[in-house]
């Protein structure tokens, strides 16, 4: 039976070694990365499922209106589309905050790691360059991890912003087209 317990948790061994090598700050970076990519998956799901249904509802609501040409109708269309796009954009500030936080946590890990290295060198009788080099290599691991998570997060955020701009334009085009079709039906 101990073999089964060990086999179930064998995936955690590399993570445990990574945390031992990088320090406790690495756990914080991992949590921030998990939160960031959870928000990313949530936005993907929202875009694929909820956004399309809400867009169809808005288009139907707009095309059912009698008045499309007046100033109040155009203002209402703008307000409705802005509200819908704002819901698509809602978690972006939090995601940007998490991306900015990752390198800072990495720097914190490096600083704490260097303090441990220099503290260990001060307490040891022998001042070996090899021990210092190993300690510095371990201390830079959180910075590298924080930067890697931040770069991946930046790529996701920039892609999301492109998608949001594209979808906003598509929404405006479809609303305008729905008004034109309604006007042509009324004229015919």
Description:
The protein has 188 residues and is an all-alpha fold. It has one domain (26-47, 55-187). Helix content is 89%, strand content 0%. The chain contains 6 helices and no strands. Helix 5 (92-123) packs antiparallel against helix 6. It is elongated. The protein starts with a helix and ends with a helix. The mean pLDDT is 86.
In short:
The protein has 188 residues and is mainly alpha-helical. Helix content is 89%, strand content 0%.
On the 0-100 scale, what is the average pLDDT?
Answer: 86
The major beta sheet can be summarized as: none
The share of residues in helices is over 70%
Order of helices and strands: HHHHHH
- Overall number of domains: 1
Please give the number of β-strands: 0
Using the alpha-carbon principal axes, give the shape.
elongated
Task: Round the Cα radius of gyration to an integer and report it.
Answer: 26 Å
Structural class by secondary-structure content: mainly alpha
Low-pLDDT residue spans: none
* Content of β-strand: under 5%
Distance between the termini: 79 Å
The number of distinct helices, counting runs of at least 4 residues, comes to 6
What is the fold's blueprint, element by element?
Blueprint: H1 2-8, H2 12-22, H3 25-64, H4 71-89, H5 92-123, H6 129-187
Helix pairs in contact: 3-4, 3-5, 3-6, 4-6, 5-6
Using brief descriptors, characterize the structure shown.
single chain, 188 residues, mainly alpha, elongated
